[in-house]
């Protein structure tokens, strides 16, 4: 079977096809297949790997467009996922600059990670003698985010980064910001929340691809939502993002329980939203928006229960 590998020699991109016997690779991981190709066919093929046991995060690549850690991807599972194919396309992670073949430049992502100060800045009441103690419950709260191995799969899948990476950071950066901000030993969560806000926290487009493809089953999308809630609770309420979130709440809880796109846009972007009047007319003529309900419509069935659920979630969140 064929492995079509996207290569880059520092100047030009090209693809190269390597052929291997299917029976020889069925019991291997994807990383073992790449090593086999390097050892038996082409020593110039470049990729990175270290631990070979899903810990170091060095072996992220794309298979047929999706991100995987190669050492933790069994060929049997890939055959199951993609059917009985006779070719796989292997490419470097997306949304990273390629250095050589499957090797990408991590420095810009590491620079982003530094911005949110991922290391613990401990409360001053911890003594040198006692250290920074944490009980099991406090540790359990952040244990999932500690599983992040910085493999870059979430960043590779991120639609926001693909569209425009200049005002956003890799999803795993927000996961580490959430983890640091929610560490019971932390002196001040805002040390991590503020740089998240100023570096694109509200620009996530909610595609959920980061959560879908994380090999450790971490949801950076949830962590981004958690950071947003924390930012708003701590008074970082200005800007389009918080206004948009508040407008959802107003529509669902204080109004009819029905999202009203016109009021949503007005509450979010103010009068500048008039520029979108044409879009509103198009939506109305396509039957996507009821002009009779622009300034308020009938309350949805079960609205009282919806409000009860939201209030209960809010109360639980405060505990
Ligand atoms: S080689 Fe370390 S995670 Fe794959």
TrEMBL record:
Its cofactor is [3Fe-4S] cluster; [2Fe-2S] cluster; [4Fe-4S] cluster. NCBIfam families: dhsB (TIGR00384), MFR_FeS_SdhB (NF042952). GO terms for biological process: respiratory electron transport chain; tricarboxylic acid cycle. Keywords: 2Fe-2S, 4Fe-4S, Iron, Iron-sulfur, Metal-binding, Oxidoreductase. PROSITE patterns: 4FE4S_FER_2. Belongs to the succinate dehydrogenase/fumarate reductase iron-sulfur protein family. It holds the Pfam family Fer2_3. Residues 193-224 form the 4Fe-4S ferredoxin-type domain. InterPro entries: 2Fe-2S_ferredoxin-like_sf, 4Fe4S_Fe-S-bd, Beta-grasp_dom_sf, Helical_ferredxn, SDH/FR_iron-sulfur_subunit, SDH/FRD_Iron-Sulfur, Succ_DH/fum_Rdtase_Fe-S, Succ_DH/fum_Rdtase_N. One of its GO terms (molecular function) is metal ion binding. The lineage of its organism: Bacteria, Pseudomonadati, Campylobacterota, Epsilonproteobacteria, Campylobacterales. This is Periplasmic methylmenaquinol:fumarate reductase, FeS cluster subunit MfrB. The keyword Oxidoreductase applies. It comes from the Bacteria.
């Amino acid at each position: 079977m064929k492995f079509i590998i996207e290569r880059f020699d520092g100047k030009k991109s090209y693809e190269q096809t390597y052929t291997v016997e299917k029976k020889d690779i069925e019991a291997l991981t994807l990383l073992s297949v790449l090593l086999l190709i390097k050892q038996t066919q082409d020593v110039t093929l470049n990729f990175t790997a270290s631990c070979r046991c899903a810990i170091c995060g060095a072996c992220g690549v794309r298979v047929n467009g999706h991100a995987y850690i190669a050492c933790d991807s069994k060929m049997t599972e890939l055959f199951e996922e993609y059917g009985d194919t006779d070719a796989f396309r292997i490419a470097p992670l997306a949304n990273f600059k390629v250095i050589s073949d499957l090797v990408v430049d991590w420095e810009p992502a590491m620079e982003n990670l530094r911005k949110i100060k991922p290391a613990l800045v401990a409360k001053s009441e911890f003594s040198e003698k006692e250290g920074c103690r944490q009980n099991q419950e406090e540790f359990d709260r952040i244990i999932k985010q500690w599983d992040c191995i910085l493999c870059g799969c979430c960043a590779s899948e991120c639609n926001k980064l693909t569209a425009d990476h200049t005002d956003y950071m890799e999803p795993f950066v927000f996961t580490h910001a959430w983890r640091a901000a929610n560490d019971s030993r932390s002196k001040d969560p805002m040390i991590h929340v503020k740089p998240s806000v100023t570096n694109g926290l509200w620009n996530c487009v909610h595609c959920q691809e980061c959560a879908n493809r994380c090999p450790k089953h971490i949801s950076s999308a949830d962590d981004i939502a958690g950071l947003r809630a924390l930012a708003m609770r701590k008074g970082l309420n200005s800007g389009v993002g918080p206004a948009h979130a508040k407008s959802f709440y107003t529509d669902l809880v204080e109004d009819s329980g029905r999202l009203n796109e016109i009021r949503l846009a007005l509450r979010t972007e103010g009068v500048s939203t008039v520029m979108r009047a044409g879009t509103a007319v198009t939506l109305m003529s396509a039957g996507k928006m009821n002009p009779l309900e622009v300034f308020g419509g009938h309350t949805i069935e079960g609205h009282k229960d919806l409000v009860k659920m939201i209030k209960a979630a809010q109360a639980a969140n405060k505990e």
